[in-house]
C-alpha cells in the first residue's frame, strides 16, 4: 500500500500502516509510554511528527489515526522531567513541540484522534489540531501547567484555533473540561460511552474511512480558513515567552517537588 506497510516503534510511538483499501491508506499511530502516562519527550514529538508526514508514494488518499495504547488515558502532555534537565534539553523540547505543531498544522492528511481518559497540555493540543475527535465519555481535558507557575503559551496559541480566546485562556489557567463540555465547546466530534467504546469507535472509524475523500477535502478547506503559516506566526511570536515561564520564581522547584512525589508513589 505505501512505505509504512509494517510496524515501526520509535521512542514510545508505534506506527502501523498496513490497513485500509486500495483507495485509502490508513496509518495508525499509537502513543505507548504507559508508565509515564504517554508524556511526550522531545524524541517522541520528533517521531510523531515524522509519522504524521504524508507517505512518499502520494498515490492513495490517506487518513492518520492517533490513539493511545492505554484504555485509561490519552496523553499527559509534554514530559516535564525534560523541563528541569538542563538548558539544552529544554531547548530541544521546545524545538520539537514547535516542529510537531508545524507538521500537524500544515499536513494535508486528515487526522482522526481516538481519546479517552486524561488529555493534558500538549495532549489537548493534539486534539485541537485534529479533524475528527472520537472521545469516550470519561475524557478530561486540562492544562495544569499553572500549578507550577507557568502559562502554556504554545498550547494557548493552538487552542485559540479551535475555541474562543476566552475559553482557551480559562483552560490554560487551570479550568478542566469533561467530555460533554468539550463537545459543546467544539473540541470533540463525537462522544461515545466508555463501556462500549472499543466496539463503537471501530464502527465510527470505519464510517470515516469510507468517506476518506470527503475528509481530505475538509482538511484542505481547514487549511484555507486557518493557514498553517498564520498559526505558526502566532506560535513563534509566543515561543520566547517560554523562557520567562521557566525563569519564574519557584517554577523549577515546584516541578522537581512534583516529580519527587511521583517517584515516591511509584516506589510504593
Can you tell me about this structure?
This protein has 268 residues and is of the alpha/beta class. Helix content is 45%, strand content 19%. It is built from eleven helices and eleven strands. The chain has helices spanning 42-52, 87-106, 122-128, 153-159, 165-172, 179-185, 197-209, 212-225, 228-238, 241-247, 251-266; strands at 7-10, 13-20, 24-31, 61-68, 73-75, 111-115, 118-120, 132-136, 140-142, 177-178, 190-192. The strands form two sheets. It has a seven-stranded mixed β-sheet, sandwiched between helices. Strand 1 and strand 2 (13-20) form a beta hairpin. Helix 1 packs parallel to helix 2 (87-106) and helix 4 (153-159) packs antiparallel against helix 5 (165-172). It is globular. The termini are far apart. Residues 1-7 have low confidence and may be disordered.
Entry keywords:
268 residues; alpha/beta; 7-stranded mixed β-sheet; 4-stranded mixed β-sheet; 11 helices; 11 strands; 45% helix; disordered N terminus
Amino acid at each position: 500500500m505505501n512505505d509504512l506497510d509494517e510496524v515501526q516503534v520509535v521512542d514510545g510511538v508505534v506506527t502501523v500502516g498496513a490497513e485500509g483499501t486500495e483507495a485509502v491508506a490508513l496509518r495508525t499511530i499509537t502513543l505507548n509510554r504507559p508508565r509515564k502516562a504517554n508524556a511526550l519527550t522531545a524524541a517522541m514529538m520528533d517521531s510523531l511528527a515524522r509519522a504524521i508526514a504524508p507517505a512518499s508514494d502520494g498515490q492513495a488518499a490517506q487518513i492518520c489515526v492517533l490513539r493511545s495504547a492505554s484504555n485509561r488515558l490519552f496523553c499527559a502532555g509534554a514530559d516535564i522531567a525534560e523541563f528541569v534537565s538542563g538548558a539544552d534539553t529544554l531547548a530541544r523540547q521546545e524545538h520539537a513541540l514547535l516542529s510537531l505543531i508545524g507538521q500537524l498544522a500544515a499536513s494535508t492528511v486528515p487526522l482522526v484522534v481516538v481519546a479517552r481518559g486524561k488529555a493534558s497540555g500538549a495532549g489537548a493540543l493534539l486534539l485541537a489540531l485534529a479533524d475528527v475527535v472520537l472521545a469516550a465519555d470519561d475524557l478530561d481535558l486540562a492544562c495544569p501547567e499553572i500549578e507550577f507557575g507557568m502559562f502554556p503559551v504554545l498550547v494557548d496559541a493552538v487552542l485559540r484555533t479551535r475555541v474562543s480566546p476566552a475559553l482557551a485562556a480559562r483552560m490554560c489557567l487551570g479550568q478542566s473540561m469533561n467530555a460533554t463540555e468539550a463537545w459543546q465547546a467544539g473540541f470533540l466530534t463525537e462522544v461515545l460511552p466508555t463501556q462500549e467504546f472499543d466496539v463503537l469507535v471501530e464502527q465510527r472509524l470505519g464510517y470515516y474511512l469510507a468517506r476518506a475523500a470527503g475528509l481530505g477535502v475538509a482538511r484542505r478547506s481547514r487549511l484555507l480558513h486557518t493557514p498553517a503559516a498564520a498559526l505558526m506566526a502566532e506560535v513563534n511570536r509566543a515561543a520566547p515567552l517560554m523562557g520567562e515561564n521557566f525563569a519564574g520564581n519557584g517554577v523549577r522547584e515546584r516541578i522537581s517537588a512534583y516529580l519527587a512525589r511521583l517517584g515516591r508513589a511509584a516506589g510504593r
